Amino acid sequence: PHAPVKLAYYKLAMQHHPDRAAGTDDAERFAEIGAAYAALLGEHQQQRLEAEEHDEGLAAAAPRDPSVPPKFVPAFPRWVYHVGDVLQRLPQQFDLWLQPSHASLIYGHVRASELAEALAIFEEMRREGERPTQAIYEMLIRGCTLAMRRVGPGQRADHLTMNLLRKARELWADMELVQRPRDYWTYNEYLRALGKAGAVPEALDLFDEMCGSVR
């Protein structure tokens, strides 16, 4: 489908997603939105995409022992996390001083869980021939990840998560097309998307690629 159809789908699906909506009819409405979008996408293409994703291993890896709680081990000293919190708030402060840029507008929409609006700005940039920055791609991939429903062991991704994973893949490929660099931050954002959607084999391959290419 054309970009406006995709953006409308993202907005409606996120609005009626059972994890976010409290209405009793939202689960049914969410399923209807997925079915309508699949019909627009084309039954044949949808089946092909789902078969590819099945082959890539959307079923997650074996579960860990639930009796053993995950252990958080800080990777850096405490002051590093404090600096990170400060840096995370900087874009909001800059918006008070400077004319809003495409990057700051996208950042604001992602923070507000308005992924469709963020993607609309991105599509406008691409239509106008602009070359999005590395940070814009990272923010949009993060927005896709945040909007996904985590796929657990033996579970299958819902239609929104599957389509958001496709969008993250498109952003990753487009980043290469416009020759934007990929560093550890970029790889980590994409790894989170793959992991949350249950694409574990693909994530492991990407991790190997990161270790071999990023210095």
TrEMBL record:
<dbReference type="InterPro" id="IPR002885">
    <property type="entry name" value="PPR_rpt"/>
</dbReference>
<feature type="repeat" description="PPR">
    <location>
        <begin position="183"/>
        <end position="213"/>
    </location>
</feature>
<feature type="repeat" description="PPR">
    <location>
        <begin position="98"/>
        <end position="132"/>
    </location>
</feature>
<protein>
    <recommendedName>
        <fullName>J domain-containing protein</fullName>
    </recommendedName>
</protein>
<dbReference type="Pfam" id="PF00226">
    <property type="entry name" value="DnaJ"/>
</dbReference>
<dbReference type="InterPro" id="IPR001623">
    <property type="entry name" value="DnaJ_domain"/>
</dbReference>
<feature type="domain" description="J">
    <location>
        <begin position="1"/>
        <end position="55"/>
    </location>
</feature>
<dbReference type="Pfam" id="PF01535">
    <property type="entry name" value="PPR"/>
</dbReference>
<dbReference type="InterPro" id="IPR011990">
    <property type="entry name" value="TPR-like_helical_dom_sf"/>
</dbReference>
<keyword id="KW-0677">Repeat</keyword>
<dbReference type="InterPro" id="IPR036869">
    <property type="entry name" value="J_dom_sf"/>
</dbReference>
